[in-house]
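Two folds, back to back.
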Amino acid sequence: QVQLVESGGGLVQPGGSLRLSCAASGSIASINIMGWFRRRPGKQRELVAYITSGGATTYVDSVKGRFTISRDNAKNTVYLQMNSLKPEDTAVYCCNAIPAGAWGQGTQVTVSS
Protein backbone atom coordinates (compact mmCIF):
# COMPACT_ATOMS: atom_id res chain seq x y z
CA GLN A 1 0.00 0.00 0.00
CA VAL A 2 1.25 3.46 -0.85
CA GLN A 3 2.46 5.49 2.14
CA LEU A 4 1.82 9.24 2.09
CA VAL A 5 3.93 11.92 3.78
CA GLU A 6 2.66 15.48 3.92
CA SER A 7 4.87 18.52 4.48
CA GLY A 8 4.96 22.27 4.06
CA GLY A 9 2.65 23.39 6.83
CA GLY A 10 3.43 26.06 9.37
CA LEU A 11 2.35 29.30 10.97
CA VAL A 12 1.40 32.07 8.57
CA GLN A 13 -0.33 35.42 8.91
CA PRO A 14 -3.74 36.05 7.36
CA GLY A 15 -3.32 36.79 3.67
CA GLY A 16 -0.17 34.71 3.46
CA SER A 17 0.64 31.67 1.37
CA LEU A 18 1.87 28.12 1.86
CA ARG A 19 2.61 25.26 -0.49
CA LEU A 20 1.86 21.78 0.82
CA SER A 21 3.45 18.65 -0.62
CA CYS A 22 2.32 15.05 -0.41
CA ALA A 23 5.00 12.54 -1.29
CA ALA A 24 3.95 8.97 -2.01
CA SER A 25 6.17 5.94 -1.41
CA GLY A 26 5.02 4.41 -4.68
CA SER A 27 3.61 5.38 -8.01
CA ILE A 28 0.49 7.53 -8.09
CA ALA A 29 0.21 7.43 -11.86
CA SER A 30 -2.38 4.66 -11.67
CA ILE A 31 -4.43 6.44 -9.01
CA ASN A 32 -7.24 8.24 -10.81
CA ILE A 33 -8.16 10.74 -8.11
CA MET A 34 -5.93 12.32 -5.47
CA GLY A 35 -7.32 14.73 -2.93
CA TRP A 36 -6.37 17.09 -0.14
CA PHE A 37 -8.43 16.94 3.03
CA ARG A 38 -8.40 18.98 6.22
CA ARG A 39 -9.60 18.61 9.76
CA ARG A 40 -10.32 21.92 11.44
CA PRO A 41 -10.46 22.10 15.26
CA GLY A 42 -13.67 20.56 16.54
CA LYS A 43 -14.86 19.54 13.07
CA GLN A 44 -14.87 16.43 10.94
CA ARG A 45 -12.43 15.84 8.13
CA GLU A 46 -13.51 17.49 4.88
CA LEU A 47 -12.40 17.18 1.29
CA VAL A 48 -10.87 20.47 0.16
CA ALA A 49 -9.79 19.73 -3.40
CA TYR A 50 -9.15 16.83 -5.71
CA ILE A 51 -7.47 16.21 -9.04
CA THR A 52 -7.97 13.45 -11.58
CA SER A 53 -5.29 11.65 -13.54
CA GLY A 54 -6.27 13.82 -16.49
CA GLY A 55 -5.69 17.00 -14.52
CA ALA A 56 -9.28 18.03 -13.90
CA THR A 57 -9.66 19.80 -10.56
CA THR A 58 -12.51 20.41 -8.13
CA TYR A 59 -12.59 22.62 -5.03
CA VAL A 60 -14.88 23.16 -2.10
CA ASP A 61 -16.52 26.60 -2.35
CA SER A 62 -14.66 28.02 0.64
CA VAL A 63 -11.27 27.70 -1.09
CA LYS A 64 -12.15 28.36 -4.72
CA GLY A 65 -9.91 31.01 -6.22
CA ARG A 66 -7.42 30.73 -3.35
CA PHE A 67 -6.16 27.13 -3.44
CA THR A 68 -4.67 25.23 -6.37
CA ILE A 69 -4.13 21.47 -6.42
CA SER A 70 -1.64 19.88 -8.78
CA ARG A 71 0.12 16.56 -9.22
CA ASP A 72 3.46 15.43 -10.60
CA ASN A 73 3.19 11.73 -11.38
CA ALA A 74 6.89 11.54 -12.27
CA LYS A 75 7.74 12.65 -8.72
CA ASN A 76 4.82 10.78 -7.11
CA THR A 77 3.83 14.03 -5.43
CA VAL A 78 0.63 16.03 -5.05
CA TYR A 79 0.72 19.72 -4.16
CA LEU A 80 -1.66 22.24 -2.66
CA GLN A 81 -0.82 25.89 -3.22
CA MET A 82 -2.72 27.98 -0.68
CA ASN A 83 -2.95 31.74 -1.13
CA SER A 84 -4.88 34.46 0.70
CA LEU A 85 -5.04 32.27 3.77
CA LYS A 86 -7.67 32.96 6.40
CA PRO A 87 -7.82 32.02 10.10
CA GLU A 88 -10.61 29.55 9.25
CA ASP A 89 -8.14 27.63 7.07
CA THR A 90 -6.35 26.54 10.24
CA ALA A 91 -6.37 22.74 10.20
CA VAL A 92 -4.37 19.57 9.82
CA TYR A 93 -4.09 18.92 6.09
CA CYS A 94 -3.78 15.40 4.68
CA CYS A 95 -3.73 13.97 1.21
CA ASN A 96 -5.13 10.65 0.05
CA ALA A 97 -6.46 8.78 -2.88
CA ILE A 98 -10.19 8.71 -3.47
CA PRO A 99 -11.39 6.16 -2.35
CA ALA A 100 -9.03 6.65 0.56
CA GLY A 101 -6.20 4.32 1.51
CA ALA A 102 -4.02 4.60 4.59
CA TRP A 103 -3.79 8.08 6.06
CA GLY A 104 -0.50 9.88 6.70
CA GLN A 105 0.25 12.11 9.69
CA GLY A 106 -0.79 15.28 7.93
CA THR A 107 0.74 18.72 8.22
CA GLN A 108 -0.47 21.47 10.53
CA VAL A 109 -1.44 24.81 9.01
CA THR A 110 -2.07 27.66 11.42
CA VAL A 111 -3.24 31.04 10.15
CA SER A 112 -2.95 33.65 12.84
CA SER A 113 -1.64 37.14 13.42
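---
second:
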Amino acid sequence: QVQLVESGGGLVQPGGSLRLSCAASESISRLFVMAWYRQAPGKQRELVASISLGGVTNYLDSVKGRFTISRVNGKNTVTLQMNNLKPEDTAVYYCYTPPGSWGQGTQVTVSS
Protein backbone atom coordinates (compact mmCIF):
# COMPACT_ATOMS: atom_id res chain seq x y z
CA GLN A 1 0.00 0.00 0.00
CA VAL A 2 1.39 3.40 -0.95
CA GLN A 3 2.54 5.61 1.93
CA LEU A 4 1.53 9.28 1.90
CA VAL A 5 3.10 12.10 3.91
CA GLU A 6 1.59 15.58 4.05
CA SER A 7 3.37 18.82 4.85
CA GLY A 8 2.78 22.55 4.64
CA GLY A 9 0.05 23.15 7.20
CA GLY A 10 0.13 25.92 9.75
CA LEU A 11 -1.51 29.02 11.13
CA VAL A 12 -2.52 31.74 8.70
CA GLN A 13 -4.67 34.85 8.87
CA PRO A 14 -7.92 35.12 6.93
CA GLY A 15 -7.18 36.01 3.33
CA GLY A 16 -3.79 34.35 3.47
CA SER A 17 -2.40 31.41 1.52
CA LEU A 18 -0.89 28.01 2.22
CA ARG A 19 0.49 25.31 -0.01
CA LEU A 20 0.08 21.70 1.10
CA SER A 21 2.22 18.93 -0.31
CA CYS A 22 1.69 15.18 -0.31
CA ALA A 23 4.69 12.98 -0.96
CA ALA A 24 4.04 9.41 -2.06
CA SER A 25 6.32 6.44 -1.44
CA GLU A 26 5.98 5.24 -5.00
CA SER A 27 5.33 6.63 -8.42
CA ILE A 28 2.01 8.42 -8.59
CA SER A 29 1.96 8.07 -12.35
CA ARG A 30 0.24 4.72 -11.74
CA LEU A 31 -2.28 6.09 -9.24
CA PHE A 32 -5.51 6.94 -10.99
CA VAL A 33 -6.85 9.40 -8.46
CA MET A 34 -5.16 11.57 -5.86
CA ALA A 35 -7.26 13.62 -3.47
CA TRP A 36 -7.30 15.95 -0.50
CA TYR A 37 -9.86 15.56 2.27
CA ARG A 38 -10.34 17.62 5.40
CA GLN A 39 -11.96 17.11 8.76
CA ALA A 40 -12.92 19.90 11.10
CA PRO A 41 -13.64 19.27 14.81
CA GLY A 42 -17.04 17.68 15.27
CA LYS A 43 -17.60 17.29 11.54
CA GLN A 44 -17.35 14.47 9.04
CA ARG A 45 -14.38 14.15 6.76
CA GLU A 46 -15.14 15.76 3.39
CA LEU A 47 -13.58 15.68 -0.05
CA VAL A 48 -11.90 18.98 -0.85
CA ALA A 49 -10.33 18.30 -4.23
CA SER A 50 -9.31 15.42 -6.46
CA ILE A 51 -7.27 14.99 -9.60
CA SER A 52 -7.23 12.07 -12.01
CA LEU A 53 -4.29 10.62 -13.87
CA GLY A 54 -5.42 12.60 -16.89
CA GLY A 55 -5.52 15.84 -14.94
CA VAL A 56 -9.29 16.11 -14.51
CA THR A 57 -10.01 18.00 -11.29
CA ASN A 58 -12.97 18.17 -8.98
CA TYR A 59 -13.53 20.62 -6.11
CA LEU A 60 -15.80 21.12 -3.14
CA ASP A 61 -18.11 24.00 -4.03
CA SER A 62 -16.94 26.16 -1.13
CA VAL A 63 -13.30 26.09 -2.29
CA LYS A 64 -13.81 26.54 -6.03
CA GLY A 65 -11.82 29.49 -7.30
CA ARG A 66 -9.64 29.54 -4.18
CA PHE A 67 -7.95 26.12 -4.08
CA THR A 68 -5.96 24.41 -6.83
CA ILE A 69 -4.89 20.77 -6.83
CA SER A 70 -2.02 19.62 -9.00
CA ARG A 71 0.12 16.54 -9.41
CA VAL A 72 3.77 16.35 -10.34
CA ASN A 73 4.23 12.77 -11.50
CA GLY A 74 8.00 13.01 -11.80
CA LYS A 75 8.29 14.09 -8.17
CA ASN A 76 5.59 11.75 -6.82
CA THR A 77 3.93 14.78 -5.28
CA VAL A 78 0.44 16.20 -5.13
CA THR A 79 -0.07 19.76 -3.98
CA LEU A 80 -3.01 21.84 -2.84
CA GLN A 81 -2.57 25.58 -3.26
CA MET A 82 -5.00 27.36 -0.96
CA ASN A 83 -5.63 31.07 -1.44
CA ASN A 84 -7.97 33.54 0.25
CA LEU A 85 -8.29 31.23 3.21
CA LYS A 86 -11.28 31.59 5.51
CA PRO A 87 -11.80 30.56 9.14
CA GLU A 88 -14.16 27.83 7.94
CA ASP A 89 -11.25 26.22 6.10
CA THR A 90 -9.73 25.32 9.47
CA ALA A 91 -9.34 21.54 9.61
CA VAL A 92 -6.90 18.67 9.43
CA TYR A 93 -6.13 18.05 5.77
CA TYR A 94 -5.46 14.52 4.55
CA CYS A 95 -3.99 13.19 1.35
CA TYR A 96 -5.70 10.10 -0.07
CA THR A 97 -5.47 7.65 -2.93
CA PRO A 98 -7.73 4.68 -3.51
CA PRO A 99 -8.29 2.01 -2.46
CA GLY A 100 -7.41 3.14 1.05
CA SER A 101 -4.12 4.96 1.51
CA TRP A 102 -4.30 7.96 3.84
CA GLY A 103 -1.63 10.31 5.08
CA GLN A 104 -1.33 11.26 8.73
CA GLY A 105 -2.84 14.69 8.16
CA THR A 106 -1.62 18.25 8.50
CA GLN A 107 -3.35 20.95 10.55
CA VAL A 108 -4.52 24.13 8.86
CA THR A 109 -5.75 26.90 11.12
CA VAL A 110 -7.15 30.13 9.73
CA SER A 111 -7.48 32.73 12.44
CA SER A 112 -6.68 36.35 13.18
